[in-house]
Amino acid sequence: MREEGLSMAEEIEWFVGIDWASQSHQVCLVDARGECLGERAVAHGGLGIEELCDWLIARTGATPEVHWGGHRNDAGPGRRSLVGTRFCVYGINPKQLDRFRDRFTVAGAKDDRRDAHVLGDSLRTDRHAFRRLSNDEPVIVKLREWSRMADDLQQERARLASRMREQLWRYYPQMARAG
Known about the structure:
Blueprint: E1 2-3, E2 6-7, E3 14-19, E4 24-31, E5 36-43, H1 46-60, E6 66-71, H2 77-83, E7 88-92, H3 94-101, H4 112-125, E8 131-132, H5 138-171, H6 173-178
Parallel strand pairs: 3-6, 6-7
Antiparallel strand pairs: 1-2, 3-4, 4-5, 7-8
């Protein structure tokens, strides 16, 4: 299988797996042979991402050849900022990550360091299973954010309605039966 003029196994020397979290992200740098060359945790936010990019460039001496795999269902601001860098950024479905994780261990325990390594190595061996991310048009990004907010508000409304119904049933059952 060929991608961007390169075969799956040629010329790409560095792969990065990143396990996204809300406060800090676990990162693993893997070479073309599958060896882990470095791991670290980086803070969430622009400064953490900038520090990570600088660390990768210093560590590898490469810019466009670094392929970066991360998992999340959504492409939040952190992921979108990475797509704007010089790196090739890929996303993987969390269910696929579970299957790739089985190559390393059969234990069901989740470990951020292991997941970062699994992502980097899986990107090396099975890049065709990943989806390359690109920046969307600003109007699409805005529409996606509005859609997420609408979904969040609908879930919050349902949660509050259930909570109110439960409280009415508990303290004033006559009103709950009437309504």
